[in-house]
Write a structure and sequence with these properties.
With 193 residues, this protein is mainly beta. It contains 1 helix and 13 strands, in the order E-H-E-E-E-E-E-E-E-E-E-E-E-E. A 6-stranded mixed β-sheet has the order 1-10-11-7-6-3.
Amino acid sequence: MKEDALKFEPMLCSCLAAQAIACAAPQTSTRVDLGPLSPDDVGGDAARAIVVFGRAGERETPPEQIDQTLLDDELMLVSRSPVACVRVTLTTQAAYDQPFDALTPTCEIDGARSVRAEVREERARPASYWYDFRPPGTWEVIERALNTVTRHGTICCPGEAPNQALRFKMSNVTMGLDDETPWEATAYWSLTL
């Protein structure tokens, strides 16, 4: 086993496996607006936002040899009443991985001020994706690993259930150390009764 992989007790995947996992993923953005959603849409594909952490035209990207959608994240509105809950799946380079609480999840319900969301469950799974790298000006090929952590869980919004809209946002300050501007991922669901 490669030395880089020992840090994470990883599940090993090839670049082809990474591409197969994400080949059907839609276009991503740091902010996705969905809706209007009926109560029947909650928990289904219509309530699923594919987002990626980023800021001002920048986004988290893997090395070019690996499928670029590998680091896409999913936010799905899974309940609306009695409280709104979002199922979260985040895949991040291991160097930027943070538990959900550290990503300061917030909810804005029906245009009211943002409030801190509550993490109800969370689990993490590390993985390494191997690829070949050729340093510029050489014929030597070096095998490298992209170490990632995928976090799954449910985050709920305190207070009353939304009637018109829900905005859910997470911020990762470790990705913005160069100028202290955090990278964000946001989903906005407009709702119907």
